[in-house]
Amino acid sequence: MHIAIAGNIGSGKTTLTGLLAKHYGWDAQFEDVDDNPYLNDFYEDMQRWSFNLQIYFLNSRFSQIVQIRQTGQDTIQDRTIYEDAFIFAPNLHSMGLMTTRDFENYFALFNLMSSLIEPPDLLIYLRASIPTLVNQIQNRGRKYEDNIRLDYLKHLNERYEAWIETYSMGKLLIVDADNYNFPASPEDLSVVIDKIDANLHGLFK
Predict the structure, then answer these.
(1) Is the Cα dihedral 180, 183, 187, 192 positive or negative?
(2) What's the pTM?
(3) How far is the CA of 184 from the CAs of 15, 64, 94, 116, 172, in angstroms?
(4) Catalytic: 84?
(5) Is 205 a member of any domain?
(6) pLDDT tens digits, residue range 129-150?
(7) Does the residue 155 lie in any domain?
(8) Residues 6 or more apart from 100 whose CB is under 8 A from it?
(9) Which of the following is catalytic: 27, 41, 74, 78?
């Protein structure tokens, strides 16, 4: 079984991925941020490094999905390949931070890759407001994220909402991250686990 967590930067995906992996005994596939060779450069000069970063993420997530299918293990994935293609890359393009030539090249590669994979069995979307995102980004203290622009986060949130509204590739669970504190509250985590169980086992939500 393949479960994936979607959400904006700072929505709590990595934290929830780790907690759910521990609870269910799932294998966890995390987003490659610590060893990503482009993130620092990207946040300092988005226009110069946007294409490089998106290609890196595209390759990384495609490799994760191939590994998930090859191992056959129940796996939870921190962010999906679809977010890169339908949210991050188009957002960079529309903000003038990725050229049309690069965007079309990127999307052609995504279309080829996506034709070779299956979507997750369950998508968990962490919906978070801008104040929640900013607070959590500041709390985790990643230096390269100091340069994230508020308008960048806002545009991403708008694209997430539009994407989720039309998502039809599989089961979807929306979690309002503004109302949950997973690391500090076992009760909050338990509520989400109950919702996941209902989705996975076909019970009433």
Answers:
(1) positive
(2) 0.89
(3) 11, 29, 38, 39, 25
(4) no
(5) no
(6) 999 998 888 877 677 676 677 8
(7) yes
(8) 93
(9) 78
